[in-house]
Amino acid sequence: MGKLGLWQSIAEMLLDDIGQKKLKAGEKLPTELMLSKRFGVNRHTVRRALQHLAEKGIVWSKRGSGVYLKAPPTEYPIGTRVRFSQNLTLDGRLPTRKTLTLEIRAASVEERNALNVVDNGKVLAYSGISFADGQPIALFNSIFDPLRFGRLIERIKVNNSVTKSLNDCGITDYTRAWTKITAHLADPVKANHLQINDGQPLLCTTSLNIAPDGTPIEYGKTFFSAEHVVLSHSDDLSYS
Amino acid sequence: MGKLGLWQSIAEMLLDDIGQKKLKAGEKLPTELMLSKRFGVNRHTVRRALQHLAEKGIVWSKRGSGVYLKAPPTEYPIGTRVRFSQNLTLDGRLPTRKTLTLEIRAASVEERNALNVVDNGKVLAYSGISFADGQPIALFNSIFDPLRFGRLIERIKVNNSVTKSLNDCGITDYTRAWTKITAHLADPVKANHLQINDGQPLLCTTSLNIAPDGTPIEYGKTFFSAEHVVLSHSDDLSYS
DNA sequence: TAACCGTGGACAACTAGACAAATCTAATTT
DNA sequence: AAATTAGATTTGTCTAGTTGTCCACGGTTA
Fold it and tell me: Using the beta-carbon criterion (under 8 Å), do A192 and B4 form an inter-chain contact?
């Protein structure tokens, strides 16, 4: 058993603090300068310890702001009936959403093909961040037909829920027609939103939700933080 | 293999939006505050990205108002027959004019020499802004002999066109005797009119239009925004 | 000697907040 | 109806604090 390096001892002390709940999930750690004074070492040594904790997925650092404690991973089921709130509630988490954009704008080629109902090239785009217990776990981007769901903008603002807002628009039920899953690397902006480091892997699901009569309702693309989410599909998963 | 800074990624995303026509020429971009929320960064970081786009001549910001998308450069031919509307129409642009001043006033020495017909030291001065697709591209200043073209004031007010108004005064044709081209820096007033930043370069053309009999008709000085205009001359350009 | 670890400092990049200046909007007054 | 006024909005500027990156230096260890 080799001697512990200086930075390793510091990392363990920080872990002790975390284990003893002196620090809660999402909270900001003392600054590197404060920690270096407290432990009587150089800032670089503290940074080495924090880097270790970051690699283990325990903390996350934001340049210019501070180092923050992360929450543990979430299991996210994918099946024929995908409902954000329901999924997380079942996992014992508190689901939250934060809207980034909610607007009618020009459609991209990809979006046009997916919803194939677009006439004048406009779509209703709803994007934002999904949280579980305050921890950002995904960036979502939903596309709707503005002619059919123009009222959706105001409804989403009120409900903050897609399922409920679609219900207000007469869609009492919808199912997942298909889901494609890919992996990407986080660009700086996505990393920032998801509170992970630039270059970390993302799980990307592209999917289409349809009404019982088969007409397309929602074309969605979601980027999950691979550190925080495990996608799972149950047996009744059916691609029709 | 450059590592992308945060503001660089944001600048690229904004460029994507512009390229995908989600933002149209002349339109106002979302406010810095909205963009900072959308990208999950500090306002200063957004400003850094916008500053980059401004330096590339893609956007233009107006304090207290917003940041606006600029139109791509316009090609403006210079030859023996220079007609504002015709030039821009040929380039596929929609030409517009806005009058700033239209009056009879004392002539400067320079104007007196150019039009050499002035007796009592008065000239008819017509100045304004030229637009292409709503984008201001030039400040023009035309000087006429008030004795010969006194009726021009009312005609221009009606026609909003120099060529047509001269026609109403009996000038069925005129040609460009000579053109001198220089470059200057925009003072704050010119910059404001042209919606560019103070200190940006201007192309300045000084020219004389003459009647077929050789008598001077119009002495003009025009300041083009160098960001928005490329002056071009075709082969038949003749300095007589 | 060579590799490694920690120290020390300088600078860049980003965050955070405050305030000023210009503009825009809407209500009020004339 | 037009002008004025007051408040809110938006960009410009400034100061300060925090993390990221780079270079150089000295001491310890293999």
Answer: no
User: Strands B135-144 and A135-144, how do they pair?
Assistant: unpaired
Average pLDDT over residues A114-132: 84
Percent of chain A with pLDDT over 70: 88
Q: Classify the phi-psi angles of B102: left when phi > 0, otherwise alpha if psi is within -120 to 50, otherwise beta.
A: beta
**Residue with the larger pLDDT of the pair B240 and A112:** A112
The overall average pLDDT reported for chain A is 84
Residues B46 and B160 occupy one common structural domain: no
Q: Does the residue B211 lie in any domain?
A: yes
CA angle (A108 as vertex; A147, B69 as ends), nearest 5: 100
Q: Which nucleotides of C are covered by protein (CB under 7 A)?
A: 5-9, 13-17, 21-24
Q: The tokens of A166 are what?
A: 């679609």
Same domain? B95 vs B25: no
- The predicted pLDDT at position B82 comes to 64
On whether both B130 and B214 belong to a single domain, the answer is yes
**pLDDT of res. B240:** 35
Lowest pLDDT segment from A117-131, A211-225, B80-94:
B80-94
- Tell me what pLDDT residue A84 has: 67
Per residue in A172-184, pLDDT (tens digit) is: 888 888 888 888 8
Q: Of B235, B239, B233, B236, which is closest to residue B76 (Cα–Cα)?
A: B233
Q: Does B90 touch chain A (CB under 8 A)?
A: no
Mean pLDDT of A75-98: 71
Whether B139 and B85 map to the same domain: the answer is yes
The CATH number that applies at residue B57 is 1.10.10.10
Question: Does residue A237 lie in a domain region?
Answer: no
pLDDT (mean) for B28-56:
95
Shortest distance between the Cα of B136 and any Cα of chain A, in A, equals: 26
Tell me, yes or no, whether A239 lies in a domain: no
Interface contact flag, A192 B41, Cβ < 8 Å:
yes
**DSSP H stretches of helix in B41-151:** 43-55, 84-90, 109-115, 146-149
List b or e across B146-165, with b for residues whose CB sees 16 or more CB atoms inside 10 angstroms: bebbeebbebbeeeebbeeb
Quick one: pLDDT at residue A237? 39
Write out the residue range of the structural domain in which residue A40 sits. 6-69
Closest among B209, B207, B187 to B199, alpha carbons compared = B187
B239 within domain boundaries: no
In this structure, the answer to whether residues A58 and A116 fall within a common structural domain is no
Is the distance between the Cβ of A2 and the closest atom of strand C smaller than 7 Å?
Answer: no
